[in-house]
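> example.struct
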């Protein structure tokens, strides 16, 4: 009651038209009858849940910006409100009225820009570009970036969940860069990469003589990162004794160096990340429940790349421009190659994508990336979708509906020129790769059946065939062919004469 009266008087003095509701039912009546630019919603009302009221507001007046008012201890619910469309949240009691007024002004300005269809770029875009956080265009990632940007300014711990390679550390750096601690230190620590004794010393430091080899006092990461951000990656791998010490720091803001007796104070924001289910680990007594709730004030979940495939084209082009040499010609990806990249499942997520782009750049010797430049694991995935585009005798049944043998299918493919002629520049290389895989599988089957295979070619035959194919590939260019083969031009001339190879 007092809060509503206070805001009414404050905002009316500034020239705003203000309506107040002290119950959920009254608020619903106002929402249904009156249009608003900004709404301040208390999470706890006598007869309603603030989140339900927020959802009703957004369904009836989506252009109205909502600011959630929350008490201490309900931060997790307030963050959920942002995910449901709230502009921001503010904690009670309001110690700085200027902060409240500025937040209302920001909500009004943002609402006007959106209503005018001129929302422009999101506020967080500059920060994201500066630290290399590629958000993309999927709704899930856009919501994630918006929530991360808003909670970055709050002095609360964050837990990031996501599969390996989804970019958890990049998201943590984004939160740090968007926070009030951005000018201070950001330190990442992989809890699964260090043994327990080293991790303890790394996190908390040690006193001189604390153990063999401790010849001097050493500050730990919690001390070095004072006033900054500490990113604890793979937090689920921390041992139970380390978890106890982490809990003490989060609860008291103090810790003891290894071998020390005097507490050391620290003011560190902790962002933890894991690719395991910590709630399951808590149930199985492998992770402390009290530490979990200390870390899980705000939880952000990074989707795997397979759930944001509409971003792959943009990501591929981004990493090509970032990884390609500065003086290289601009590279383009052929539609066929891009389709194969889109069809791949990306079990290693963004990290795997970066590695594959790096491989492609090493293999590509032209200004267009073709299927031939892609790794075999992507081509084999694409091969599952390869089907000729004309009716062919290679169906699974004859005209009398009896099954066709593999030999009959292969024979029809060889003797059907129309089928071969359907291949185009986009899929002919894929077809070639598939045929080579079929050849290898048939050779394996022959060995399994103890059937003598074709006599292996001699080294001279292999060498002559390799030189012939290389010259054909480079259209008779001796210099380029020699460089590709790793031999000198004179050696190549001698080999051409020796094997009587025709050249253009």
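> example.seq
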């Amino acid at each position: 009651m007092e809060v509503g009266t206070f805001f009414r008087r404050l905002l009316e003095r500034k020239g705003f038209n203000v309506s107040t509701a002290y119950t959920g039912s009254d608020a619903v009546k106002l929402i249904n009858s009156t249009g608003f630019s900004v709404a301040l919603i208390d999470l706890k009302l006598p007869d309603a849940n603030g989140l339900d009221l927020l959802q009703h507001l957004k369904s009836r007046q989506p252009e109205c910006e909502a600011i959630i008012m929350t008490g201490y201890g309900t931060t997790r619910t307030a963050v959920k409100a942002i995910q449901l469309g709230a502009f921001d949240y503010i904690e009670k009691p309001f110690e700085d009225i200027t902060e409240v007024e500025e937040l209302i002004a920001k909500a009004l300005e943002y609402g006007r820009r959106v209503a005018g269809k001129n929302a422009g770029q999101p506020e967080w875009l500059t920060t994201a570009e500066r630290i290399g956080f590629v958000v993309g265009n999927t709704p899930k990632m856009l919501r994630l970036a918006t929530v991360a940007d808003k909670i970055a300014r709050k002095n609360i711990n964050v837990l990031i969940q996501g599969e390996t390679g989804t970019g958890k550390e990049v998201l943590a750096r984004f939160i740090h860069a968007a926070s009030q601690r951005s000018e201070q230190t950001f330190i990442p620590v992989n809890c699964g990469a260090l043994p327990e004794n080293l991790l303890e010393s790394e996190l908390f430091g040690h006193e001189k003589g604390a153990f063999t080899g401790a010849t001097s006092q050493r500050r730990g990461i919690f001390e070095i990162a004072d006033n900054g951000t500490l990113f604890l990656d793979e937090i689920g791998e921390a041992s139970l004794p380390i978890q106890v010490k982490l809990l003490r720091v989060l609860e008291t803001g103090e810790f003891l160096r290894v071998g020390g007796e005097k507490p050391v104070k620290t003011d560190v924001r902790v962002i933890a990340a894991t690719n395991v289910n910590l709630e399951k680990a808590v149930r199985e007594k492998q992770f402390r429940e009290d530490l979990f709730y200390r870390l899980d004030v705000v939880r952000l979940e990074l989707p795997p790349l397979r759930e944001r495939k509409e971003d792959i084209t943009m990501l591929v082009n981004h990493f090509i421009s970032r990884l390609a040499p500065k003086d290289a010609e601009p590279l383009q990806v052929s539609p066929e190659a891009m389709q194969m990249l889109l069809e791949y499942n990306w079990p290693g997520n963004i990290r795997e994508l970066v590695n594959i782009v790096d491989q492609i750049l090493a293999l590509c010797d032209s200004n267009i990336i073709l299927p031939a430049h892609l790794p075999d694991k992507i081509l084999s995935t694409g091969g599952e979708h390869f089907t000729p585009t004309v009716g062919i005798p290679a169906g699974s049944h004859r005209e009398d509906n009896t099954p066709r043998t593999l030999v009959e299918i292969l024979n029809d493919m060889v003797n059907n020129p129309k089928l071969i002629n359907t291949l185009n520049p986009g899929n002919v290389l894929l077809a070639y790769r598939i045929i080579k895989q079929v050849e290898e599988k048939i050779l394996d089957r022959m060995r399994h059946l103890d059937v003598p295979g074709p006599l292996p070619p001699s080294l001279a035959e292999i060498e002559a065939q390799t030189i012939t194919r290389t010259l054909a590939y480079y259209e008779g260019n001796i210099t380029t062919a020699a460089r590709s083969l790793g031999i000198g031009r004179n050696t190549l001339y001698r080999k051409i004469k020796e094997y009587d190879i025709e050249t253009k």
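> remarks
The mean pLDDT is 86.
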